Amino acid sequence: MTKVISANDFVARLRDGTCGCVVDVRTLGEREALCLKTPSLSQPLDVLDPELVRNALPDPNAPFFIMCKSGRRSQNAAAVLEAAGLTGATVVEGGMDACALYGAEIVHNLPLSLDRQINVGIGVAVLITLFLGATVSPFCYWGTAVLGGGLVFLGITGSGWLHALMARASWNR
């Protein structure tokens, strides 16, 4: 069973310097947009290498924290790392979002986070399909319906496929 620490307790450990090693499993684009001021090891979940994490620790059983945006990917990463024999993993509950709420020192590098890029992209696509529906063909209104349906699907399932797609965009690498 993976250990979990509340974001509030984690931020307190950041402040007093007792957090030790932090493994950030967010995409490089997410990390470049904002990251903890405290140094951390970047190991995106899709390329997570337990050997690199092992080499960053003083010993394989040393405690370390796993961070993502909201906590879900951290749980997956913890399972991978524990299966590789790294038993000191502790997941930060709520991830970067919760740490920001509890006052963690965060460095903002890019003007638009991955979530905001997706919101802007879908909003622009909706406006384009509405304009085309009004000026070219009513058939174009179906594009708006598809976009809305896709948002409902993402909201219900929590699927991260759109985030994965946007993370692969050249400006997010």
In short:
The chain is of the alpha/beta class and about 170 residues long.
Q: Could you explain the architecture of this structure?
A:
Helix 1 (7-16) packs across helix 5 and helix 6 runs antiparallel to helix 7. The protein has 2 domains: 3-108, Oxidized Rhodanese, domain 1, CATH 3.40.250; 114-172, no CATH class. It is an alpha/beta fold. It contains 8 helices and 7 strands. The mean pLDDT is 86. The longest helix is centred in the last third of the chain and has 22 residues, at 114-135. It has helices spanning 7-16, 28-33, 50-56, 72-83, 95-101, 114-135, 141-157, 161-167; strands spanning 3-5, 21-24, 34-36, 41-42, 64-67, 89-92, 106-108. The strands form 2 sheets. The protein has a 5-stranded parallel beta sheet. 51% of the residues lie in helices and 13% in strands. Strand 5 (64-67), helix 4 and strand 6 form a beta-alpha-beta unit.
Main attributes?
8 helices; alpha/beta; elongated; 2 domains; 173 residues; Oxidized Rhodanese, domain 1; two-stranded antiparallel sheet
Contiguous helical run count: 8
Uncertain regions spanning at least 5 consecutive residues = none
Global structural class = alpha/beta
**CATH homologous superfamily title of the largest domain:** Rhodanese-like domain
Arithmetic mean of pLDDT: 86
Count of all domains? 2
Order of helices and strands: EHEHEEHEHEHEHHH
Radius of gyration: 19 Å
Architecture (CATH level 2) name of the largest domain:
3-Layer(aba) Sandwich
As for the CATH topology of the largest domain, it is Oxidized Rhodanese, domain 1
Q: What amount of the residues lies in strands?
A: 5-15%
Secondary structure: helix percent = 40-55%
Largest sheet: 5 strands, parallel
Principal-axes geometry comes out as: elongated
Order of strands across the main sheet: 1-6-5-2-4
Would you state the CATH class of the largest domain?
A: Alpha Beta
Alpha-carbon distance between the two ends: 33 Å
